[in-house]
């Protein structure tokens, strides 16, 4: 585990910008990773370097050729990182925009009268796209209810609502509200058992930072991530699509190559920063394993990240040293249960008789950054069934420490109306 290797967490933290201080606030603990993870220093440097280059791809000059090579290298790196030996990667405006585009394409190419299936746990990025384009394409939308107590939707839940005429399906890999991870591969198998040719599109935005991406094992057709939530920066999203989704008629320029999905000239620096992210996972895997193969090192990094983040969330829930954990604080309620093995680096809570925004403000005043999730168009699908108007989201990543968890618990212990 990461914290069992002497000095490794300090080395990890040194690779990230603003790990313990905010340029506007000063010293602070960053527990708002689900809203956007910290950025690798290498990504900051790469972004600045490429921002200065005036050349574009597709020209006959040395700079343009180099840019194309860098993009191709990044796509190859992504294929290893996400274990995607087929299909293609492309860049768009954001993870949300890419989910809309993939879902739109699948829906408008589906047979009239077919169905689209998705779950109530999903972020509106995929739910909104599926419901909107199902309506436009004349398809029925089928909603799979998630379990309110666990914050999960399972393969069995999907199976209950599956029929052979389901042509498009959406799956959330991990919830940014509850922090629970879904078994994408098992859900996908359940879908294909009833509708083998269904186009399956996955929202991987919240899951990506927590490692263990393995597209080849999922049996899906589309997968989107937001790089700013996996140690890169804002301003773009990345999608992977299968060969058969690639081949569907889709928005593109007249007479453009049939397999092209990007619009306009993309930022080479965006691609290059993903090579930095993959290199980081590769490096981390080398610190926690003796693997000689890059993919095996990346898998080792993902496993170590998951194990360490589980250690941190368990410490938050069960206590550190003499400090009581969240489960032992009478004024605190933990969403989706204190003992939930699906949790991925995130604990959402409510404090009795105190609005979540007030708790977040009081924590901020002590230099602890968290976030309020409200029962709005982003989170109402999860919070409303629980009878909650809001909650406090505490989201961490593998560069956080047990000492930071202890400081959070100390602060929350004293926030008791």
UniProtKB/TrEMBL annotation:
Keyword line: Pyridoxal phosphate, Transferase
Name of the top EC class for this enzyme: transferase
UniProt domain Aminotransferase class V: residue ranges: 29-246, 304-408
UniProt xrefs under SUPFAM superfamilies: PLP-dependent transferases
An MF annotation (GO) of this entry: cysteine desulfurase activity
Enzyme Commission number(s) from the entry: 2.8.1.7
PANTHER family the UniProt entry points to: CYSTEINE DESULFURASE
Protein name in the entry: Putative cysteine desulfurase
């Amino acid at each position: 585990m990461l914290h069992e290797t002497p000095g490794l967490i300090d080395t990890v933290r040194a690779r990230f910008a603003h790990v313990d201080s905010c340029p506007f606030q000063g010293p602070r603990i960053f527990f708002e990773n689900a809203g956007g993870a910290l950025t690798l220093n290498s990504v900051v440097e790469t972004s600045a370097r490429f921002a200065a280059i005036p050349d574009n791809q597709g020209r006959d000059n040395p700079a343009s050729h180099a840019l194309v090579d860098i993009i191709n290298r990044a796509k190859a790196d992504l294929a290893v990182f996400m274990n995607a030996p087929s299909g293609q990667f492309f860049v768009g405006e954001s993870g949300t925009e890419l989910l809309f585009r993939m879902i739109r394409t699948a829906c408008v190419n589906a047979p009239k009268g077919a169905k689209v299936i998705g779950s109530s746990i999903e972020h509106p990025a995929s739910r909104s796209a599926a419901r909107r384009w199902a309506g436009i394409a004349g398809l029925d939308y089928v909603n799979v209810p998630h379990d309110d107590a666990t914050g999960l939707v399972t393969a069995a839940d999907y199976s209950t609502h599956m029929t052979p005429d389901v042509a498009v399906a959406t799956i959330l890999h991990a919830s940014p509200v509850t922090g629970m991870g879904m078994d994408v591969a098992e859900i996908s198998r359940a879908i294909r058992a009833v509708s083998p040719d269904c186009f399956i599109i996955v929202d991987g935005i919240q899951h990506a930072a927590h490692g263990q991406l393995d597209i080849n094992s999922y049996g899906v057709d589309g997968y989107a991530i937001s790089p700013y939530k996996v140690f890169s920066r804002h301003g773009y999203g990345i999608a992977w699509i299968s060969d058969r989704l690639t081949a569907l008629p889709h928005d593109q320029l007249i007479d453009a190559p049939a397999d092209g999905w990007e619009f306009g000239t993309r930022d080479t620096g965006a691609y290059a920063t993903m090579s930095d992210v993959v290199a980081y996972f590769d490096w981390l895997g080398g610190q926690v394993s003796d693997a000689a193969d890059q993919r095996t090192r990346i898998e080792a990094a993902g496993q170590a990240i998951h194990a360490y983040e589980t250690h941190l969330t368990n410490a938050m829930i069960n206590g550190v040293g003499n400090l009581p954990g969240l489960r032992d604080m009478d004024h605190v309620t933990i969403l989706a249960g204190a003992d939930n093995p699906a949790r991925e680096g995130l604990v959402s809570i409510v404090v009795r008789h105190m609005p979540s925004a007030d708790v977040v403000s009081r924590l901020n005043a002590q230099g602890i950054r968290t976030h309020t999730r409200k029962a709005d168009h982003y989170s109402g699908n999860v919070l409303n069934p629980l009878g909650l108007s809001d909650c406090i989201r505490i989201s961490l990543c593998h560069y956080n420490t047990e000492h930071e968890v202890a400081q959070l618990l100390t602060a929350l212990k004293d926030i008791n109306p």
